[in-house]
Amino acid sequence: MSETYTSVSQEEAGFRDRTRLSFELDADICVIGAGLAGLTIALEAARLGASVAVLEGRHVGWNASGNQLGTVMPGFALPLTELIERIGFEDARELWRLSKEGAEFVRANATEENMPGIARSEGVLEVSNVDAGDRLISRLQMLNEDFDTEVEGWQVDRVREVLKTDRYFHGVYYPKAFQVDGRKYVHGLAGLARRAGARIFEDTPVVSIDHSGIRKRIVTPSARLRATHIVLAGNIHLGAPLRRLSETLLPVWRYAGITAPLGERVHEIIAFKGSVMDSDGVDHFRIVDGDRLMWESPETTWAAGPQRFAGAVRRRIRTILPALGNVEVTDMFGGATGQTVHGMPQIGQLRKGLWVASGFGRQGMNTSAMAGQMIARSILWGDERWRLFSPFELVWAGGATGRVAGQLVGIWGRASSAAAGSLARYRERARVKNREREARLAEANRAAGTGPRRPPPGVRPRPAPAPKPAVEAADPPSEPASHDVGVSR
């Protein structure tokens, strides 16, 4: 799997036949952005019989869509309990069901037949860095009974049996979640869309959009395109024509690294075969290419060269899995995700014929697939389920001030998580010491009970009290006093 991350130029070499839009074109649907969401819309709409053109300013999957760990599971960036508080139980359950459909869309397409080398593997383990047993039980019940999601609760011992570290406590195991080679998936999705009839034009930035009238007009540097529907799936990179929409997203860059081969010791320390992520969203890792570790951790609100964060990834691995020692990080990659203020994706119709699909945050694999299906079916079938996202309006993300605030919140969140984890581990060690102390005391008491106790040196033994004289059986009981209540005379 690692070749997909280390040999980017080879991957791009396979797409030297990129087509730039250089002629006038009419289509039913124009999708702006060839990432996960845009390509899913193109694939689904083409399968349903529409003519689709995708305009991409650079190349397929150039940003976050082609630079992610490929973990696929249900849910959203917004925690489920907060989602229920925001829109109510029934609508939250429907949105959760749609997110599961998105995950199944990925599973159905990410096969070796469709995408050779996709390297799909099963199982995702979400671990907690604090002792959250009570909260775990209620969460499992809700997921199992109310949201029809197969999950297992793992006790601390079981988590530490597969992850040799004391940093993690309880876990939630999703047996039907899975992971794929992220870069192969986005390029495989483009291949499926092309075969279904969609036309993908790369190196074709959008200069302007006129979304008035029935037929919308899109201008590129070398040609024009007309379409009945336009779908904005460019995330934070929609550019000048739609800058106000881009500014409703907070750009967050996530960086990941791949270690040099670690040999068999990595399997001794990480016996879990799927993806591992912590419940605070700080660390996300899995084994790839047999014995290498792929690890995502640093997060910033500004762009930087991925190689700059190799040291941060290496230190994070050493902190969480000290038994691995100092590892060498040989490859780095990263991309920007757009995060909304409310934590939910932006999915829906802005005005007649103008649609948006962006803001997927960390849960991009399943939610982008869900959005693609939903918008294609809304356009061609009149499916109205996109209205479930109406409560999550477009909110300005604060511009440069928002980025600074986002970075500070991220730093505070990671510091709080680290402090909570340290406190949990301190309490655990204290409980262990108390149990050991109680066990020693109990053993000492048992040993003392086998013979007469000897006083400590220098302490005079206290004489035993004289025995009380036995009461003669013939003595009559003394007569109660006259003031006792309840005695008849």
From TrEMBL:
List every stretch annotated Disordered: 426-489
Parts of the chain that traverse the membrane: none
Q: Return the Pro residues bias intervals.
A: 453-468
Q: Which residues form the FAD dependent oxidoreductase domain?
A: 28-377
Spell out the Basic and acidic residues composition-biased ranges: 426-443
What keywords would UniProt list here?
A: Oxidoreductase
The UniProt entry, under PANTHER family, shows: FAD DEPENDENT OXIDOREDUCTASE DOMAIN-CONTAINING PROTEIN (PTHR13847:SF281), SARCOSINE DEHYDROGENASE-RELATED (PTHR13847)
What is the recorded name of this protein? Answer: FAD-dependent oxidoreductase
